[in-house]
Write a structure and sequence with these properties.
Elements: E1 9-13, H1 19-26, E2 31-36, H2 44-49, E3 52-55, E4 70-76, H3 85-93, E5 96-107, H4 135-144, E6 147-154, H5 158-178, H6 187-190, E7 193-200
Parallel strand pairs: 1-2, 1-4, 2-3, 4-5
Antiparallel strand pairs: 5-7, 6-7
Helix pairs in contact: 3-4
Length: about 200
């Protein structure tokens, strides 16, 4: 949808785990702002890649700290860590430029019944998960705030699904001998992740 040469403005909520480097790799000319409650899982390289890093206090309104609108806003596995996520998603809708994209990804409701695994396969494997997001509720927030939902459902990736299928066999054998399972590579096979994507009218 966007060209890599575009001068996009990007806001990444919860910007750790190499996210700044990945965005700057694919969109080198973008203006990238990261927002988080702390310098969490940010390498020195990632910090240098960001044009701006914004600290938000738990429970603090985005209206208090954001001063511009963005072409892309990302909430990748953030909502499930927030007790006030509905309010925050609603606020973010106001910080999208017309035609701007809001991307959210979070554990599916079904993950509550998945087997437990190292690295999180069951929602409750991660003690910092405090809120079970619902695709319908997130979609309704977007629709009520002028954001058209263009996708809502299970996150899909055929290659990762096939890899997960193979790894699931390996993990089953591993469990027989070591009594534990590692979630790495299994998310797309199990359907752990849901996503809602909207575009500002």
């Amino acid at each position: 949808m966007f060209q890599s040469s575009s001068r996009l403005s990007i806001l990444d909520i919860g910007c750790g785990n190499d996210s700044p480097s990945l965005f700057k790799h694919w969109y080198p000319n973008s203006i990238y702002h990261g927002l988080d409650v702390a310098h969490y899982n940010l390498s020195e390289k990632d910090e240098k890649m960001m044009d701006k890093f914004i600290i938000v206090k738990p429970g603090q309104s985005y209206n208090e700290i954001l001063i511009q609108k963005y072409d892309i806003i990302v909430m990748n596995h953030v909502i499930e860590h927030m007790n006030d996520s509905s309010e925050r998603v609603e606020e973010l809708c106001n910080f999208l430029n017309p035609g701007g994209i809001l991307y959210t990804a979070f554990p599916s409701v079904k993950s509550l019944s998945f087997p437990s695994a190292i690295g999180t396969l069951n929602f409750c494997d991660d003690p910092t998960h405090v809120f079970v997001p619902c695709i319908r509720d997130i979609s309704n927030i977007l629709l009520a705030n002028g954001v058209k939902v263009i996708y809502a459902g299970k996150s899909k990736d055929s290659i990762r699904y096939i890899i997960g299928f193979i790894l699931n066999i390996y993990q089953y054998i591993r469990k027989l001998f070591f009594q534990n399972t590692n979630a790495k590579g299994l998310w797309f096979y199990y359907g752990f992740e849901s996503s809602v994507i909207g575009i500002k009218k």
